[in-house]
Amino acid sequence: xxxxxxxxxxxxxxxxxxxxxxxxxxxxxxxxxxxxxxxxxxxxxxxxxxxxxxxxxxxxxxxxxxxxxxxxxxxxxxxxxxxxxxxxxxxxxxxxxxxxxxxxxxxxxxxxxxxxxx
Amino acid sequence: xxxxxxxxxxxxxxxxxxxxxxxxxxxxxxxxxxxxxxxxxxxxxxxxxxxxxxxxxxxxxxxxxxxxxxxxxxxxxxxxxxxxxxxxxxxxxxxxxxxxxxxxxxxxxxxxxxxxxxxxxxxxxxxxxxxxxxxxxxxxxxxxxxxxxxxxxxxxxxxxxxxxxxxxx
Amino acid sequence: xxxxxxxxxxxxxxxxxxxxxxxxxxxxxxxxxxxxxxxxxxxxxxxxxxxxxxxxxxxxxxxxxxxxxxxxxxxxxxxxxxxxxxxxxxxxxxxxxxxxxxxxxxxxxxxxxxxxxxxxxxxxxxxxxxxxxxxxxxxxxxxxxxxxxxxxxxxxxxxxxxxxxxxxxxxxxxxxxxxxxxxxxxxxxxxxxxxxxxxxxxxxxxxxxxxxxxxxxxxxxxxxxxxxxxxxxxxxxxxxxxxxxxxxxxxxxxxxxxxxxxxxxxxxxxxxxxxxxxxxxxxxxxxxxxxxxxxxxxxxxxxxxxxxxxxxxxxxxxxxxxxxxxxxxxxxxxxxxxxxxxxxxxxxxxxxxxxxxxxxxxxxxx
Lengths: 118, 169, 366
Fold this sequence. Notes:
Chain A has helices at about 1-30, 60-80, 85, 90-110. By secondary structure, chain A is an all-alpha fold. Chain B contains six helices and no strands. Chain B has helices at about 5-25, 30-50, 50-75, 90-110, 130-140, 145-165. Chain C is mainly alpha-helical. Chain C is built from 13 helices and two strands. Chain C has helices at about 1-35, 50-60, 70-85, 115-135, 140-170, 175-185, 190, 195-205, 220, 230-255, 270-295, 300-330, 340-360; strands spanning about 100, 105. A two-stranded antiparallel ribbon of chain C has the order 1-2. The longest helix of chain C has about 35 residues, at about 1-35. Chain C is globular, with a radius of gyration of 21 Å. The chains are: A mainly alpha, B mainly alpha, C mainly alpha. At the A-C interface, helix 1, helix 2 and helix 4 of A face helix 1, helix 3, helix 4, helix 5 and helix 10 of C.
């Protein structure tokens, strides 16, 4: 099994090399004429104002938290799905209980408007 | 030294080095990226141990979800990415002493344990950890209760997150 | 051993690179066909060398790095975006094992027993390139584009993951090779679970930021999103990543729902496997282009609401419908009871469509 990972590692290394070669080609053949205007942030031709990175809305944070929780749920699903045929009805009921508990939270988030984007 | 040992030492060095950088770098986003490197090193350790499921789950959950949350949280809180304050407070000497003592204690403990030099028995051929895990998660004589309790834990986290980040209409 | 890995990896990389070149050409020609135009037809016969001309143009462009960008991360993020788009293809089987020079070769780079989770993990790494590109550019539009894009990708990843669960339930394995072989015995999983295949297709459109979910690149609002500040070959890497992801994700969809390399005569002539894969991939790619030609962009708040309020519950429902159907067929000992799965899931999909329709008709929904 470890061999399969080494095969993947080979692929990763080669892919990185290809990406670096691509950037290297551009650096090698592209013109380099530095100008003040060119190195300013691009704002559709207007003179840029204010900092480039700003504080973002809290919505994104909430989405990331919700994503983690449901992602873990999906991860729990996977080993269950593999052996589902052996588990039978009992396995289905247990997973239904698991999801039912989580669904309470999902409905709460929905009712609280956490899934709305205004 | 076998190839596996070399891979282990390399990934251990990456884990430790990146972990030091997480707490010492001044740029918060860089700190988050070093944390990703640490987590990735741990994934490599799992791969060496033939724990395929854990390897991939480590990447999916920790790198793919939790570290992303950290990056989002950093972008949420800070306008200036560079913190100019002192990095150590007065208690650093005591903290270093406690850290050293803990390390020494663990070292002694492990040194006296016979299992530390033993090689683990090879897994029987045809052993599929994922199948074992799936069966264990829902069978009554194994982990069915923790499994359902995990759901309650997720529910609590969900409600907490919605409450903390919720906006009043 | 090491040579086998190297050669397989190189073949995979060059297939994807050339596929990327021709996919851009294919997309432009197909769009032109739909819009009654000619499309690129000057470089080479029928414009077949167009991608080479584009590549040469991009190589001779200037690489700009804004002064206040975070230089190292700015340099790394196109690499971090492009590499996963290749690496994710490692577990896809392109055909049955072939015999060459008296040795048997498998037509995949690696077959790991958690193949599907591997796909999920690499897909989640791809988010990094985009959020970091947006942040390191130190540009308002890039930042907004990067955030939008990453939030969208993680939201639709859940639906993607749950459609994977549907497939695993039917195949009983996470290895992609075994999933294809399971479809040999039954039938294409798209027949058993048509709604699952459609959900997967929609989720992949969002995952690769394609129309109609290309909010991160909504040029009317945020210039070009996360790659606003990129030029030359660094921009080309983002471009490459998007098109390679399109190819790879069509290959994954073929493997999971459309029988992978299976087709008439594939057992006697294993080399037909890659050919069948290619045909199926090209058809799926045409659907992606067709969607782009005919659908307007969805507004961002509707996009997120659609992902969380329609796709996620529907995918969860499909998982339980599939599980119930399999359980019923197994306990009754009658495989035809599996027919309950497509029936019930079509009903569920129809209900979801009705609800979307109703909420869109409501006036209060801004």
